């Protein structure tokens, strides 16, 4: 075994990719790496979210903090968040977070003048920067364009008014969940299923059926032609052990063997819409890389991390 | 083969059960219909309405004439009385008021009591004219919200909204001086009934608490050492009962024996009493009267002429006052005593015949209407006597003004208004006329949560003192079934004494007696008058007792009661009249009095329900109402006593041929609060009770309230789904981080960021612009925004009051008020207000440091004395922090132990990440299986999109989902049937070793929050007297090293620490001590030396430190002529 090396080259295979959804395989690596990627996606990929609200008029039923909190949770498109500055280390505005490099201003101006209830939604937020706008969930295919008007902030009755100025800043999910770009990030170990064909053959059709049914998810099926039990969807298996228990209960332990592959993971990433799911993964890798760079840098010199601005902040801020 | 068979049987069984459930008529719909008719606090409203419509008229009619004793032709006659519209007289004009106005302006929500009167006036030349007056006001009556005189009565949702009232608010309380007051339901032993029990010495007592319009008395007949005595307050000693009977005209001993019954055992028991009477040499009525005369308590005052014949008068009016005596015919009373004696004898021979005081059938509930009516009666009588006195004085005066109008002393008096308001606001009922002295009858309505206030209104306050260490009244009575909630009682001293009404309970109001009595006679009751003593207890005949009064006897009691019941079902007599055949006592009890608890039941004929499918369909279609069911004889109300004559099946299918009634729904045995717990019947019972105690400590205002995923029918009926007080949290039952021991919970930071458990706390601050004796007035100034302290006035408007929406910080001024220096003295209106000198009385806000509180609302209104009162509501939005308290609905509370980042939380491969983690050790010892089922049901609910139900005992009737079906749903949606999930660690990414039980559970935030409790102090305020640090958080007090802590330190030998804690950090003080006389001297600053004032020199002065409290003690002792001397030695 001369050329045998333990060095591994992780591979990614994309299964499915939509704007807000991605499913991919990550192979030839450890749970630690997979988990690091997941954690970074949730907590450390920066986005932009409303952080400061100045309310001018609020005669709605919800109070100021309530509305401010709701505004904060609206996802904003943050494609350029990676290149934005954190307001705390922005040189242009001395960290008060009101300049164009580190913040985006929004205005909201709504007044209900009719007897009908007025829904104030994220669409009513007017952005000063066209790149940072409330995420548009409008899926013209699924809804009538008018009906789905973004995220409702508050409902106004006749005569009620809401006027405010909001400032969005860059941040990470660690500080507040509103900056997290991920709706769901999860992975699972890829299962490996071996059916003991010999034993399976000995089962009657009823027994096979009962056994197949015992899994809460549809992992196995019976081929209608051959009457053989086949694995339909390996990944539907949720490690629930139901089939194993069933096999044991039927007096056939070892009917099937299921292992989790320790080195391959199936990731599911859903984005809030702030950034595309694919971008989320890439940004996460980028952030991870920066963190590793920072570690290497800090070995050389402690002072060096001042040079790396954002990176240094990452290091210091954790 | 074996297991297969079992399976088949199982399936068969299930199908059969399913079929039987289907065939049974679903009577659930009756419950909402009942609540629509009766409402949740209908007991209060009904009784108050009864008082307003009937009771008040009766009281006034009974005392309708006010005649002057000086000149009987001068009179005031109250012809009619009614309650007007809630209104207030503002500068002479009557203005309508709404409850919300009263709450805001701290006034009372009341309506004028209007009377029509006829009276005579004296003209200037003493000529008399009879005058009429309509709608004259004699006082003001606080109005119960939503009662028939309330402005909210019969209003729909939109109208209520316009009046500023919540449509879901049940009403049933009063508003007194701006606070909402509930008159608690009072539990009492029933009046006018014979109760047999034993006293402390084991003597058998028969007692009757009589209560008529005129007299209230208590009569006790006691068996002591084999002899029977009468105990009555008006007699100094115990009176042998035979003497009493003889005095009432029953001279023959034989008749007495016959009256008690011919049974030789009875006669034997009676013999000692008869012998005693003979030994006293009393054989005739006259002798007996004479004997009694000697035993009457002589009142110290009162004319002696009155005293003659008093014994007879007492026997007539006080002794068994509920039995009427007409034309000095004492026979009914004698027979009543006979029945009492017989019951005593029976009890003696057979202990089972003893009455149980805790039996709900022997209890009456006094509702707010009755209590207010009592108060009103007292005040009205006082008003009349006072007025009469005033009239007599005026008429008696020789030189009175020529014209005289008697109404001036009756009308527009404050006796009634003030009396009612004072009593309701303090809750101290002090009605001397009825010997009633009770405290704490009213309480401020608990408004912490919707359910809390609902529960408050169904609460029953006990008759006994809470301190009594007895178990009997605290125990759960079987007769409480369906009437009083078995779960809902507080923990601690009032446990079991304070009760709550069940969901379908109705409390009766008084009903007209006359027609019922004559009906009884018509149905063949043989009148007592015509019966001989012998005939009283003939076999096969039952006594008929109506509201505690013996009417007579009936030879066919079963037939009689059947006819009466038929009449009731036909609606010919009131639906709440109860007919109860007591086989053992051989009596038929008929009751129509108020305060009995009763509940509706479905009538069954030979075990077959009268309600059929089509009836329910008609109900659903809206063509049939609850009252129609009642009228058609499908449903009837049974009180606790009559329930003893019924055989009630829980479900329709369980009926046997003997079944007479069927329950409407089993979950109605629980009250409003207990109904909110899902699957309470799977929990260990104290857990449910703990949960209920917690109900009223919920919280202030939740930011994102949710409807529980696992609801119950009661939740829907009560409207809790519209006014939720918690959130559905995804709970993982696992151990995590070690910060979850002892019921602590671990929370997900991202969930908190997204609004979980966020709540708004509102606090009221108020300021009054006082008007003073001398006409001076507080003033509120425009703030000076430039001078020193300008930063403290930032939030003030130009009017000197904080403006809404401003962030308020500690030490900010919210009302820039000044008060005049001179407030007493005569009114000097002429003086220019500018001349007055003022001192600053700025109102500053003291709140938690570093929190952003906001002025929510500012209200200006006039208070009762028409001073300007300013109310500020300050709002604080709080997110949960470590130490805040949360609770599920199963009596499982826990504090937040730590808050952890989402990425560190475990996750499933579906991406589900829990909101909070609960330690599994919370389960085994508490046995809250209901919580586990709630989790399963909630999980199934979110996955299939249907709210699941968990009503109490609801599985057979389909009001609670079964675990099997829930599991099926879970499996269908790809979850494990057991509710367990396969989770990965968020920290390492590797799978957790066990499957984790995870799913949504409804969690509520409790009002105990760290922010309100945390407290620390370095140096701070001290008490003036002792110079020691103050006590308590509110005064920024110090933390006390108490006796036990001190003992620990002594034992440890940490003397310097004790010294520091007890002296240095507390109240060190330097004193000058004279070494010669040992007394305290003083320090003379001019001479810069200590001087002993006793020795008059400064030669032997030492300076030392001691606690100020010690110095104080020495001086206080000196003031009492005790000389403590200090002997100093060199250390």
Structure summarized in a few sentences:
The complex is a heterodimer of chains A (318) and B (1131). By secondary structure, chain A is α+β, with helices and mostly antiparallel strands.
Structural description of this entry:
The complex is a heterodimer of chains A (318) and B (1131). Chain A has 7 helices and 12 strands. Chain A has a domain at 47-175: RNA Polymerase Alpha Subunit, Chain A, domain 2 (Beta Complex), CATH 2.170.120. The mean pLDDT of chain A is 84. Chain A has 318 residues and is an alpha+beta fold. Chain B has 1131 residues and is of the alpha+beta class. Chain B has 7 domains: 41-182 and 368-416 and 440-457, Rna Polymerase Beta Subunit, Chain: C,domain 2; 194-321, RNA polymerase Rpb2, domain 2 (Dna-directed Rna Polymerase Ii 140kd Polypeptide, Chain: B, domain 3, Alpha-Beta Complex); 507-669, Hypothetical Protein Ta0175, Chain: A, domain 2 (Alpha-Beta Complex); 674-757 and 881-1005, DNA-directed RNA polymerase, subunit 2, domain 6 (Dna-directed Rna Polymerase Ii 140kd Polypeptide, Chain: B, Domain 6, Beta Barrel), CATH 2.40.270.10; 759-878, OB fold (Dihydrolipoamide Acetyltransferase, E2P); 1015-1054, DCoH-like (Alpha-Beta Complex); 1067-1119, Alpha-Beta Complex (DCoH-like). In chain B, strands 21, 27, 28, 29, 30 and 31 form a 6-stranded mixed sheet that branches. Chain B has a 6-stranded mixed barrel with strand order 34-48-35-46-45-52. In chain B, a hairpin with a 7-residue loop joins strand 1 and strand 2. The relative contact order of chain B is 0.07. Mean pLDDT of chain B is 84; it is low at 1-22. Chains A and B meet through helix 1, helix 2, strand 9 and strand 12 of A and helix 23 and strand 47 of B.
Q: What's the structural blueprint in terms of helices and strands?
A:
The complex is a heterodimer of chains A (318) and B (1131).
Chain A: E1 11-17, E2 21-27, H1 31-43, E3 47-58, H2 64-72, E4 103-111, E5 118-121, E6 125-127, E7 152-156, E8 161-171, E9 182-195, H3 197-201, H4 205-213, E10 220-222, E11 229-231, H5 242-249, E12 256-271, H6 277-300, H7 309-317
Antiparallel strand pairs in A: 1-2, 2-12, 3-8, 4-6, 4-8, 5-7, 9-12, 10-11
Helix pairs in contact in A: 1-6, 6-7
Chain B: H1 2-23, H2 30-38, H3 42-62, E1 65-67, E2 75-83, E3 87-90, E4 93-96, H4 99-105, E5 110-122, E6 128-142, H5 157-162, E7 174-176, E8 179-183, E9 185-189, E10 194-198, E11 204-211, E12 216-224, E13 227-231, E14 239-240, H6 241-247, H7 253-260, H8 264-279, H9 285-295, H10 304-307, H11 310-317, H12 331-349, E15 363-366, H13 368-396, H14 415-426, E16 429-431, E17 436-438, E18 442-444, H15 450-457, E19 459-461, E20 499-500, E21 506-507, H16 514-522, E22 526-527, E23 542-546, E24 549-554, H17 557-569, E25 578-582, E26 587-591, E27 597-605, E28 608-609, H18 613-621, H19 626-631, E29 635-639, H20 640-643, E30 648-649, E31 661-662, H21 685-695, E32 701-702, E33 710-711, H22 713-718, E34 726-733, E35 745-748, H23 749-753, E36 759-769, E37 779-780, E38 807-808, E39 813-815, E40 817-820, E41 838-840, E42 843-844, E43 853-862, E44 868-878, E45 885-888, E46 893-900, E47 907-908, E48 916-918, H24 929-944, E49 948-949, H25 963-972, E50 980-981, E51 983-984, E52 996-1005, H26 1010-1013, H27 1043-1052, H28 1055-1064, ...
Parallel strand pairs in B: 9-19, 23-26, 30-31, 33-49, 34-48, 35-46
Antiparallel strand pairs in B: 1-2, 2-5, 3-4, 5-6, 7-8, 8-18, 9-15, 10-11, 11-12, 12-13, 13-14, 16-17, 19-20, 21-27, 22-24, 23-24, 25-26, 27-28, 27-29, 27-31, 32-36, 34-52, 35-48, 36-44, 37-40, 38-43, 39-42, 40-41, 43-44, 45-46, 45-52, 47-51, 50-52, 53-56, 54-55
């Amino acid at each position: 075994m001369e050329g045998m090396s333990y060095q591994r080259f992780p591979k990614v295979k994309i299964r499915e990719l939509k704007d807000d959804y991605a499913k991919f395989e990550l192979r030839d690596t450890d749970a630690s790496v997979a988990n690091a990627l997941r954690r970074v996606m949730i907590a450390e990929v920066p986005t932009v979210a409303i952080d400061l609200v100045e309310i001018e008029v609020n005669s709605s039923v919800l109070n100021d903090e309530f509305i401010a909190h709701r505004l904060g949770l609206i996802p904003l498109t943050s494609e350029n968040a990676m290149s934005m500055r954190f307001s705390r280390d922005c040189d242009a505005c001395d960290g008060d977070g009101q300049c164009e490099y580190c913040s985006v201003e929004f205005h909201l101006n709504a007044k209900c003048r009719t007897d009908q209830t007025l829904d104030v939604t994220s669409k009513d937020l007017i952005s000063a920067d066209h790149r940072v706008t409330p995420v548009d969930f409008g899926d013209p295919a699924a809804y009538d364009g008018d009906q789905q008007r973004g995220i409702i902030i508050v409902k106004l009755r006749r005569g009620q008014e809401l006027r405010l100025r909001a400032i969005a800043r860059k941040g990470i999910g660690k500080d507040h969940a509103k900056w997290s770009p991920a709706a769901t990030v999860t992975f699972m170990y890829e299962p490996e299923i071996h059916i003991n064909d010999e034993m399976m053959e000995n089962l009657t059709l009823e027994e096979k059926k009962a056994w197949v049914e015992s899994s809460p998810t549809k992992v196995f099926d019976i081929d209608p032609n051959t009457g053989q039990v086949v694995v339909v969807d390996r990944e539907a298996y949720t490690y629930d052990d139901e089939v194993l228990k069933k096999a044991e209960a039927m007096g056939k332990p070892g009917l099937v063997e299921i292992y989790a592959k320790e080195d391959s993971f199936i990731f599911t990433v859903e984005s809030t819409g702030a950034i595309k799911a694919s971008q989320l993964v890439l940004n996460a890798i980028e952030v991870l890389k920066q963190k590793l760079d920072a570690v290497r840098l800090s070995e050389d010199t402690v002072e060096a991390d001042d040079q790396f601005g954002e990176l240094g902040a990452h290091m210091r801020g954790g | 083969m074996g297991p297969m068979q079992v399976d088949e049987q199982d399936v068969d069984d299930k199908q059969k059960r399913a079929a039987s459930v289907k065939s049974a008529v679903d009577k659930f719909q009756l419950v909402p219909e009942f609540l629509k008719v009766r409402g949740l606090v209908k007991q209060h409203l009904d009784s108050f309405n009864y008082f307003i419509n009937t009771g008040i008229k009766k009281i006034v009619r009974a005392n309708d004439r006010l005649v002057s004793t000086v000149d009987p032709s001068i009179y005031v006659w109250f012809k009619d009385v009614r309650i007007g519209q809630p209104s207030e007289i503002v500068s002479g004009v009557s203005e309508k008021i709404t409850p919300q106005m009263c709450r805001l302006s701290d006034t009372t929500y009341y309506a004028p009591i209007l009377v029509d009167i006829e009276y005579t006036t004296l003209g200037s030349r003493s000529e008399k004219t009879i005058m009429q007056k309509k709608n004259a006001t004699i006082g003001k009556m606080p109005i119960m919200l939503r009662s028939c005189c309330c402005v909210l009565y019969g209003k729909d949702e939109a109208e209520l909204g316009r009046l500023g009232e919540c449509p879901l608010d049940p009403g049933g309380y009063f508003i007194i001086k701006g606070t909402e007051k509930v008159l608690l339901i009072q539990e009492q032993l029933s009046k006018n009934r014979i109760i047999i029990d034993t006293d402390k010495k084991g003597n058998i007592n028969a007692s009757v608490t009589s209560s008529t319009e005129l007299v209230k008395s208590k009569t006790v007949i006691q068996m002591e050492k084999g002899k029977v005595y009468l105990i009555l307050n008006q007699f100094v000693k115990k009176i042998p009962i035979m003497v009493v009977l003889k005095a009432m005209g029953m001279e023959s001993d034989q008749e007495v024996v016959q009256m008690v019954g011919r049974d030789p055992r009875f006669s034997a028991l009676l013999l000692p009493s008869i012998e005693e009477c003979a030994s006293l040499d009393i054989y005739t009525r006259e002798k007996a009267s004479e004997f009694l005369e000697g035993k009457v308590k002589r009142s110290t005052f009162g004319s002696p002429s009155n005293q003659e014949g008093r014994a007879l008068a007492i026997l007539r009016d006080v002794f068994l006052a509920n039995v009427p005596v007409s034309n000095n015919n004492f026979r009914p009373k004698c027979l009543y005593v006979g029945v009492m004696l017989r019951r005593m004898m029976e009890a003696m021979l057979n202990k089972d015949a003893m009455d149980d005081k805790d039996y709900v059938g022997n209890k009456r509930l006094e509702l707010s209407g009755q209590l207010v009516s009592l108060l009103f009666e007292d005040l009205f009588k006082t008003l009349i006597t006072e007025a009469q006195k005033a009239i007599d004085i005026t008429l008696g005066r020789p030189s009175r003004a020529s014209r005289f109008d008697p109404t001036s002393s009756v009308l527009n008096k404050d006796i009634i208004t003030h009396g009612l308001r004072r009593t309701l606001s303090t809750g101290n009922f002090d009605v001397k006329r009825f010997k009633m002295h009770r405290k704490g009858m009213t309480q401020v309505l608990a408004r912490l949560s919707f359910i809390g206030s609902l529960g408050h209104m169904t609460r029953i306050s006990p008759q006994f003192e809470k301190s009594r260490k007895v178990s009997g009244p605290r125990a759960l009575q079987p007769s409480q079934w369906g009437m009083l909630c078995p779960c809902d009682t507080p923990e601690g001293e009032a446990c079991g004494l304070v009760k709550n009404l069940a969901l379908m309970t109705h409390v009766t109001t008084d009903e007209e007696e006359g027609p019922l009595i004559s009906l009884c006679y018509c149905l063949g009751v043989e009148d007592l008058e015509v019966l001989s003593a012998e005939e009283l207890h003939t076999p096969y005949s039952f006594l008929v007792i109506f509201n505690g009064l013996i009417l007579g006897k009936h030879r066919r009691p079963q037939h009689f009661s059947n006819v009466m019941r038929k009449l009731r079902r036909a609606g010919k007599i009131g639906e709440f009249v109860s007919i109860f055949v007591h086989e053992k006592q051989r009596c038929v009890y008929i009751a129509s009095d108020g305060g009995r608890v009763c509940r509706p039941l479905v009538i069954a004929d030979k075990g077959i329900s009268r309600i059929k499918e089509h009836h329910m369909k008609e109900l659903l279609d809206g063509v049939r109402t609850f009252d129609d069911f009642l009228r058609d004889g499908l449903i009837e109300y049974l009180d606790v006593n009559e329930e003893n004559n019924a055989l009630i099946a829980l479900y329709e299918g369980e009926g046997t041929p003997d079944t007479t009634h069927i329950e409407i729904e089993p979950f109605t045995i629980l009250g409003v609060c207990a109904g909110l717990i899902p699957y309470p019947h799977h929990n260990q019972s104290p857990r449910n009770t703990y949960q209920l105690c917690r109900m009223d400590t919920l919280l202030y205002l939740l930011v994102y309230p949710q409807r529980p995923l696992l609801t119950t029918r009661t939740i829907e009926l009560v409207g809790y789904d519209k006014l939720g007080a918690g959130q559905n949290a995804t709970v993982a039952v696992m151990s995590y981080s070690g910060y979850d021991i002892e019921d602590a919970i671990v929370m997900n930071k991202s969930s908190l960021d997204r609004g979980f458990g966020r709540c708004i706390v509102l606090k009221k601050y108020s300021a009054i612009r006082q008007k003073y004796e001398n006409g001076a007035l507080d003033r509120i100034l425009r703030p000076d925004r430039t001078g020193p302290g300008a930063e403290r006035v930032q939030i003030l408007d130009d009017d000197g009051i904080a403006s809404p929406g401003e962030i308020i910080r500690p030490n900010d001024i919210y009302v820039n008020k000044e008060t005049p220096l001179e407030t007493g003295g005569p009114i000097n209106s002429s003086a220019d207000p500018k001349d007055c000198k003022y001192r600053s009385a700025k109102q500053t806000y003291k709140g938690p440091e570093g929190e952003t509180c906001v002025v929510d609302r500012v209200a200006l209104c006039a208070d009762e004395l028409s001073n300007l009162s300013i109310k500020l509501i300050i709002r604080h939005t709080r997110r949960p922090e470590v130490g805040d308290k949360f609770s599920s609905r199963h009596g499982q509370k826990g504090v937040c132990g730590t808050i952890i980042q989402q990425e560190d939380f475990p996750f499933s491969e579906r991406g589900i990440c829990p909101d909070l983690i609960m330690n599994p050790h919370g389960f085994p010892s508490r046995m809250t299986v209901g919580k586990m089922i709630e989790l399963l049901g909630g999980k199934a609910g979110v996955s299939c999109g249907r709210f699941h139900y968990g009503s109490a005992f609801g599985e057979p009737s389909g009001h609670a989902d079964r675990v099997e079906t829930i599991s099926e749903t879970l499996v269908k949606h790809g979850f494990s049937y057991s509710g367990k999930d396969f989770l990965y660690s968020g920290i390492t990414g590797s799978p957790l070793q066990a499957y984790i039980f995870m799913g949504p559970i409804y969690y509520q935030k409790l009002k105990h929050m760290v922010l309100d409790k945390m407290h620390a102090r370095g140096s701070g305020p001290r008490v003036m007297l002792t110079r020691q640090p103050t006590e308590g958080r509110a005064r920024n007090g110090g933390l006390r090293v108490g006796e036990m802590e001190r003992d620990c330190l002594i034992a440890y030998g940490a003397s310097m620490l004790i010294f520091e804690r007890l002296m240095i950090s507390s109240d060190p003080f330097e004193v000058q001590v004279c070494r010669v006389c040992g007394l305290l001297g003083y320090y003379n600053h001019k001479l810069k030396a200590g001087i002993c004032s006793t020795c008059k020199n400064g030669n032997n002065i030492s300076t030392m430190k001691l606690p100020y409290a010690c110095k104080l003690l020495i001086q206080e002792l000196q003031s009492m002529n005790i000389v403590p001397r200090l002997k100093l030695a060199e250390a």
